[in-house]
Amino acid sequence: DGHRLRLTAKPVFKYTQARLPPGSCFAHPSLPEHARTTDTGTATMAAQPAERSFDVIVVGAGIMGSCAAHAAASRGARVLLLEQFDLLHQRGSSHGESRTIRATYPQPHYPPMVRLSRRLWDDAQRDSGYAVLTPTPHLDLGPRDDPAFLASVANGGATVLAPAAADAPRPAWAEAFRVPDGWAAASSELGGVMKATKAVAMFQALAAKMGAVVRDRTEVVDVARKGV
Ligand SMILES: Cc1cc2nc3c(=O)[nH]c(=O)nc-3n(C[C@H](O)[C@H](O)[C@H](O)COP(=O)(O)OP(=O)(O)OC[C@H]3O[C@@H](n4cnc5c(N)ncnc54)[C@H](O)[C@@H]3O)c2cc1C
Fold it and tell me: Can you tell me the distance from the alpha carbon of 64 to that of 9, in angstroms, rounded to the nearest whole number?
């Protein structure tokens, strides 16, 4: 039909769905109705057209995929987010209690991204009502003549705490850390501790809220370009 012809006129990727057992979608409590299945999960899936079109199909619902799905859905794209295991499973890299965030990198392009991300984390927490990031000062320790360490301190705008000037006040952490001879310590304000699994859940919830379809226990086994 005309709709189908229009779609095939541009590069379209076909999503091949496989290994979809009964009750396949995890009923994440924060997902809206359209993104959930129940005990009759296959019926819910079967009720949908066999082939649907999306602007963006994200493979993998770790932190990267979940963020990507949210970002695309926020910009109005029709998004499908697919995960081969249960949502929030523990078999990838993104689960767990904590991750750290810092701005002190030797590569100069990272700190501006970290500053931008701090604002985006704030936006996501405000929009979701989740609290996932605890901002903290970040302490770097390294050899005083190490170029990578020095570049990290400079790029991250960190304040050198040690070796301290003779008349400088003794920092609060001085009793907790011993800075080895020949080493330096620097503190920056853009550190933080992230609740990892909760952050993934937050972006999945936000993506679904923005209309993304979220499916777990759905492994992508093939990507094929449709005839153009
Ligand atoms: C122990 C540890 C500590 C870390 N500490 C930090 C830290 O402090 N700070 C920091 O910034 N980073 C840290 N990282 C790195 C960070 O956690 C990872 O970079 C990040 O989680 C990667 O996310 P991801 O979404 O790319 O990958 P993953 O979380 O692995 O997600 C990939 C997803 O894709 C799914 N998938 C794969 N193939 C398919 C398919 N064919 N069909 C459907 N689904 C599929 C997988 O099941 C998985 O859920 C740490 C990592 C580890 C392991």
Answer: 30
